[in-house]
């Protein structure tokens, strides 16, 4: 009887414990080495609350992307505070926009441009394109068209093509044979990504429930693929 109980424990309790540890971010699927990816950074929004900037570990925050806008009218309420705080610590900074499928590309580009002063960022702007938390796609061709419109307007204003942050699913549906002028920031919390079409990614979000000193809540963890010189070439 006791032996059966131990067997049941190993079959059910241990997997449940491991699942909980993954859920709260104590364990992760990915641990990219500092040797392979020495340039590491985070992306933040209001979800991270009040960050204790002086406590952030420098090696883990070599760059920062701050959520600025979403759709045609939403501004992240921590954008200004996060941006001003980051500027004091001279961290390379970019701003990102969550692209919604139910607003025009022109409206979204104008909203981002009005909100994000290009003199306060030195990394390319980012357009976050994903299905999660978005409107339902009714016309794939229209979504692509509106994304192209925003992409061009961002390029015309900031003088650089935006980085496209995408899940693997969205990349396969929309980006694999399009938007070749844009660098790709790919999300994959399970393993190091390999993009279809032999395309290279520039940034990799490898964890969405990371823990860092100075941030009370979960934070997204990212790495840059390339050398220090290549990273510096992005700055403007």
Counted by DSSP, the helix tally is 6
* Gyration radius, rounded: 19 Å
Oligomer category:
single chain
Low-confidence stretches: none
Question: Major sheet, described briefly?
Answer: 8 strands, mixed, barrel
What order do the SSEs take from the amino end to the carboxyl end, as H and E?
HEEEHEHEHEHEEEH
Q: How much helix, percentage-wise, in residues? A: 25-40%
Summarize model confidence as the mean pLDDT.
91
Strands side by side in the biggest sheet: 1-2-4-5-6-7-8-9
Secondary structure class reads alpha/beta
Number of DSSP E strands: 9
Coarse morphology: globular
Please describe what this structure looks like.
With about 240 residues, the chain is of the alpha/beta class. The chain is about 30% helix and about 20% strand. It contains 6 helices and 9 strands, in the order H-E-E-E-H-E-H-E-H-E-H-E-E-E-H. It has an 8-stranded mixed barrel with strand order 1-2-4-5-6-7-8-9. Strand 4 (about 95-100), helix 3 and strand 5 (about 125-130) form a beta-alpha-beta unit. It is globular, with a radius of gyration of 19 Å.
